[in-house]
Amino acid sequence: MGLTFNIKALCTLSGSLKLIQIILAFICIALLREYDLHFGAESWHKSLADRRLVGIIAIGSSILISLPLLLAYIFFAHSSNLLEVLYCFTAAIMNIAGGAMAIETYQDMSRSKSSDAGMAMGSLMIINALAYLIDAGTGTIANRK
C-alpha cells in the first residue's frame, strides 16, 4: 500500500462525514473550554468524576477516531472495513452518552450563556452521533459489495 495524495476523498460521503465529525468535535471542545462546561459534575469529586470523564472522553474520541481515518482516506486510499464500522458505532455511543448527560445537566438550569452553551454542546454531540451512525451504515453497505 503506497503513499498517495487523493484530495478527492474529501468529496466522498465518508470523507465529508469525517470532516463534519471533526468540525463538530472541535466546536464542542471550544464550548467546553470557553464556558467551563461540565456533564453534571462541577468538581472532580470521586462520586461524580466518572460522569465528567465520560463526557470529555466522548468529545476527544471523536477527533481520535475521525482524524486518522480521514488522513487514511487522503494518503492511503483507505477503503471502508469492519473495524471502521466498529469505531463509528463506538463513537456514536460515546457521543450519545455525553450529549445526553450535557442536556440532562443544563436543561433545568436558569437561562444563561453557560446553560445555552451546555445545551448547544449536548445537541452537537448528538448530531455528531448521527453522523457516525450514517458513516457506519455506509461502511456496512460498502462491505457487502
Automatic annotation (TrEMBL):
* GO cellular component entries: plasma membrane
Q: Can you cite a GO biological process for this protein? A: septate junction assembly
For this UniProt record, give its keywords in alphabetical order, as a comma-separated list: Membrane, Transmembrane, Transmembrane helix
Q: Which domain of life is it from?
A: Eukaryota
The answer to whether keyword Transmembrane applies is yes
| Source organism phylogeny | Eukaryota, Metazoa, Ecdysozoa, Arthropoda, Crustacea
Question: What protein am I looking at?
Answer: Uncharacterized protein
Q: Does the keyword Cell division apply?
A: no
Transmembrane parts of this sequence: 12-32, 53-76, 82-103, 115-134
